[in-house]
Design goal:
Elements: E1 7-12, H1 26-31, H2 43-54, E2 59-63, E3 68-69, E4 73-74, H3 77-89, E5 94-97, H4 106-114, E6 120-122, E7 126-130, E8 133-138, H5 140-143, H6 146-155, E9 163-167, H7 173-176, E10 183-187, E11 192-196, E12 199-203, E13 211-219, E14 222-233, E15 236-243, E16 251-254, E17 257-261, H8 262-267, H9 290-305, H10 331-337
Parallel strand pairs: 1-2, 2-5, 5-6, 8-9, 9-10, 10-12
Antiparallel strand pairs: 1-13, 3-4, 7-8, 11-12, 13-14, 14-15, 15-16, 16-17
Helix pairs in contact: 2-3, 3-4
Length: about 350
């Protein structure tokens, strides 16, 4: 029988590869070693591997758009296999789901080779147990159908899910909380961290200059800390942690030094977010997602009670957001409530 212990998980999503990595082949993967990471052409593989090693990950979860995405195109199956081959050599387990940009034939080619690895597995729309943690994977295709998503969640309602990892459409994210998982993570769009219904919610995306990723620390199967991290470059990473069981607002950490309370950041005027070096930090104000949390509370209340509970925003007061009884949320929700700066 497995004995729970302290467990560190790293979550990556929307990997945003570089064009030249489409030239890799299976032969490159077979010959790939950590020494190759010093070559400039493998910078994008190196940055993900460096995060995993620096965080001392004992499990790596990949939340979709891993062989392609809307920024870099498609055909990066061998870049991903090169990264996983390094984890394989270090005996670090990993698991992955599909996003909307994990397309055939590229993902099929990736999956064919990934099945030959010992320490990685495909977990789209299934529940697996890794190192004693029950992990429910929900891919993008599943979230396009409310009935399919509900079916997958109900299939595992009698199991204590520790992590729900998804690549979710915006309008389906409220449904992920029905999994009951203490940690809910999704790729596809947005960077957010907040607590809701005894769960910590984290959303991730990436671009060419910054990497957003998440970490989680479990102790005997209990989530004790989760973080969203923004890696700007090798020497600078911004951390926003959520300590389970604490009522205090999360704090922003940069290179392990607390620099600001997020309650104060969210209340500040946009014009105050330039530092002495001219860097614009305005996006930090919107990272935690206070408005998104208020909207989710109202949606969940309406779903359960068909009316608003005291203290929650009435649906009519959610500015420009269209919510029907079927929970079809318009694009205005994205722009007005969780739009990036």
């Amino acid at each position: 029988m497995f004995t729970f212990r302290l467990m560190k998980v790293v979550i990556l999503s929307d990997l945003n590869w570089q064009d030249h990595l489409r030239d890799l082949t299976w032969q490159h993967v077979v010959a790939f070693t950590e020494d190759h990471l010093y070559e400039p052409r493998y910078e994008r593989i190196a940055r993900y591997f460096e995060i995993i090693i620096a965080e001392k990950a004992e499990l790596v979860l990949l939340a979709g758009d891993i062989t392609g995405d809307g920024f870099c195109g498609h055909g990066y199956q061998y870049a991903l296999l090169s990264l996983l081959s390094l984890l394989e050599k270090r005996n670090i387990p990993s698991a992955f789901i599909t996003g909307n940009h994990d397309l055939s034939p590229y993902f099929d080619e990736f999956l064919k080779h990934a099945r030959t690895f010992t320490y990685t597995q495909h977990i789209s729309n299934t529940l697996v147990t890794i190192h004693g943690l029950n992990i429910l994977g929900i891919n993008f295709h599943c979230t396009t159908s409310k009935s399919t998503l509900n079916k997958v969640i109900k299939e595992h309602k009698d199991t204590a899910v520790h992590i729900c990892i998804a690549h979710s459409e915006i309008k389906r994210r409220i449904r992920l909380f029905d999994s009951g998982a203490p940690l809910i993570l999704t790729g596809h769009y947005d960077r957010k961290l907040f607590s809701f219904r005894d769960s910590v919610f984290v959303s991730l995306d990436n671009d060419s200059s910054e990497v957003s990723y998440a970490t989680a620390l479990f102790n005997n199967g209990n989530l004790i800390e989760s973080r969203i991290c923004i890696r700007q470059h090798v020497e600078r990473t911004i951390y926003l942690p959520q300590i389970t069981g604490h009522d205090s607002s999360p704090y922003l950490y940069s290179e392990s030094k607390a620099v600001a309370s997020f309650e104060k950041l969210e209340a500040a005027h946009d014009s105050s977010f330039q530092d002495n070096e001219g860097n614009d930090w305005t996006y930090l104000k919107y990272l935690r997602g206070r408005q998104q949390l208020a909207a989710y509370k109202s949606m969940y209340s309406y779903k359960k009670n068909k009316e608003q509970l005291n203290g929650l925003l009435p649906i009519a007061n959610l500015h420009r957001m269209q919510i029907s009884p079927g929970y079809r949320i318009s694009s205005l929700f994205v722009r007005d409530y969780i739009g990036r700066i």
